Amino acid sequence: MAYPTANKKVIAFVEESAKLGCPDNVVWIDGSSEQLEQLRSEACATGEMIKLNQEKLPGCYYHRTAQNDVARVEDRTFICCREKENAGPTNNWMDPKEAYAMCAEIARGKMKGRTMYVIPYSMGVVGSPFSKIGVEVTDSIYVVLNMAIMTRVGNACFEQLGPDGDFVKGYHSKCDIDPEKRYIMHFPEDDTIISVNSGYGGNVLLGKKCFALRIASYLGRKEGWMAEHMLILGVTYPDGRKKYLAAAFPSACGKTNLAMLIPPKHYRDLGYKVECVGDDIAWIRVGEDGRLWAVNPENGFFGVAPGTNEKSNPNALAATRKNTIFTNVALDPSDNTVWWEGLTKPAPAHLIDWLGNEWTPDSGVKAAHPNSRFTAPAVGCPCLSDAFNSKEGVPLDAIVFGGRRATTTPLCYQSRDWDHGVFVGSIMSSETTAAATGATGVLRHDPMAMKPFCGYDMGDYFAHWIEMGKKASNPPKIFNVNWFRQDENGEFMWPGFGDNMRVLDWILKRCENAVDARETAIGYVPYAEDIDLEDIDCTKETLEKILYVDKARWSAEADEIASFYKQFGDKLPAELKESLATLKKNCEA
Ligand code: GTP
Ligand code: SPV
Ligand code: MN
User: Fold this and answer.
1) How far is CA 337 from CA 68, 201, 536, in A?
2) How far is the CA of 230 from the centre of ligand 3 (A)?
């Protein structure tokens, strides 16, 4: 057959993949709207997707995954490098030979009766020196349509690749959606990903977590840049100045919401504006000016649906009103639209839940799965930054870490310097969420929000962060935030969402030395009077409580960190050991 590329490595990969999966047909995705429209009709004909109300939700579709396949499977996700040691203590590891053989056995012949689609895609603007090309083969139309939203798909990627360019190979097969044979395997030394027996987001949209974080973090260390689980946002000041920050929060801990925040009214009236560059992933490198520059390699948002509404995140909601795929939310049969918990109050009287069952507010179960998602094109987001398509990205003034902590971690604090900032990122803990399978609400260490996504030894990753700080002559300032402090009744003490602007404001003022701070055992903490409280549902007393640094708690935290750090052995950078010793000492002083 005639191929849309002369790249022999691509052709060999596709031929090999077809030999393994034995599909009835092979279809090359060219990125044209005709071809995608054809696939949408096909998916609707088989029931794989449902076309929603095209007047209210033009271009929108609905999909349900299998009941056992609703989130990332961290226990079945592996880094398959030749030396076990290089995967580090926080990753699952399998010998690559063994992993290839196991996957081949599982996937062999499983595309029989199906079509194999070949998706050429670019992570980052096609043609940018910082972008990278991937080719994913898949037996799922749902994956093709999602990839066409989340990445830049089409023949332009082959042009970019040329006759002998290298790319990241991704093999995805739904196989039988057998949870016992579900594996998400990464071969960083071979630029290869294999995903079998799943049809859910992060497990199968291989450009996202698998490539843009796990493989890319490995490449970044080799090539001197960073791939991070971070949103990127820009703040425009009344005088027209623009500042950018990137923030790493674990899955379902507020990245999409912060990236698209709408400032409180009095900020808007003054002319403040927040713009979204990215909501999940940042690729960061040192610019010629010695600053860190960030691009968002994605082209869409794979966002958490529950809790998204006109008040919490109108920008995300607006993005989902057109050309969006909804996964595992509820259907409203009265007008063929979608619903999820928190969208409207009260809930509609009758729905079809994410499992396909009749649902009423008295059903006693959630109508939408807690990890139900929307896949929305970035261009649909009203606050999308002009810098979204910029090849060089944006220069970072601040990096912000943050987790879901009911206690201990204050609303905000600043690290003393870059190395201490790396320490602050490395000691992140957060309560688990529905974004991954397993229990939710369990506190666990999640350094830089990368525990599930670092493609190599986390100790080496910390060292790479320290190294990047040395390479950048003018690196961003590093902060930590916590929107999730709870009172005795388990209620959130900080209103969050748009009001987080007040904390961003303090952070950016700190970056220009425009506001003072209190030096504490853990770093610089805001004085309560420096956090804007105009028109907010939070008293100064509450603010003081969530800014308080409890030395006894932090002393216990330091002991906990020491035992977490043990597993990294010699790989733990001396700078982090020192910061830990300082923390312990400060807490005892
Ligand atoms: P992933 O897409 O999984 O990486 O998640 P994310 O980090 O983008 O999280 P997202 O913004 O989708 O928010 C996840 C959940 O946190 C939602 O239920 C939000 O309602 C909630 N949330 C986000 N921001 C805040 C906040 O400032 N305060 C509180 N209390 N909840 C928040
Ligand atoms: C996350 O879990 O951090 C996500 C969703 O962004 S997924 O693509 O499934 O990983
Ligand atoms: Mn994420």
Assistant:
1) 24, 21, 34
2) 8
Per-residue model confidence (pLDDT) at position 2: 85
**109 found inside a domain:** yes
Find tokens 């994410």 and name the residue: 354
Average pLDDT, the chain: 98
Q: How many structural domains is the chain composed of?
A: 3
- Residues in a beta bridge with 170: 136, 193
Read off the tokens for 352. 């079809």
Q: How many CB atoms lie within 10 A of CB 19?
A: 9
Is residue 311 domain-shared with residue 295, that is, in the same domain? no
Judge contact between 88 and 75, C-beta under 8 A. Answer: no
Give catalytic status of residue 253 as yes or no.
Answer: yes
Residues lining ligand 2, Cβ inside 6 A:
72, 201-202, 208-209, 251, 280, 302, 435
64-92 residue pLDDT tens: 999 999 999 999 999 999 999 999 999 99
Within a domain: 59: no
- Residue 69 maps to a domain: no
Residues 6+ apart with CB under 8 A from 226: 217, 220, 282, 283, 284, 285, 464, 465, 468
CATH number, domain with residue 309 = 2.170.8.10
Q: What separation in Å is there between the alpha carbon of 251 and the centre of ligand 3?
A: 5
Give the end of a domain, one of 353, 378, 403.
378
Nearest CA to ligand 2 atom 4: 251
Nearest CA to ligand 2 atom 7: 202
pLDDT in tens, 213-260: 999 999 999 999 999 999 999 999 999 999 999 999 999 999 999 999
Distance 582 CA to ligand 1 centre (A): 32
Instruction: Report pLDDT digits (tens) over 312-357.
Output: 999 999 999 999 999 999 999 999 999 999 999 999 999 999 999 9
User: Helices 458-471 & 574-588, crossing angle to 10 degrees?
Assistant: 90
List beta partners, residue 224: none
Claim to verify: residue 21 and residue 169 sit in the same structural domain: yes
Catalytic one of 175, 210, 253, 383: 253
Beta strands per DSSP E along 385-460: 394-395, 398-402, 412-414, 429-431, 443-445
Ligand 2 nearest-atom number relative to CA 71: 9
Inform me whether the pLDDT recorded for 1 exceeds 80: no
Domain extent at residue 526: 228-299+389-588
Q: pTM (2 decimals)?
A: 0.98
Asked if residue 2 is part of any domain, the answer here is no
Ligand 1: does its nearest atom lie under 6 Å from the Cβ of 311?
A: no
Please check the confidence at residue 205 and state whether its pLDDT lies above 70: yes
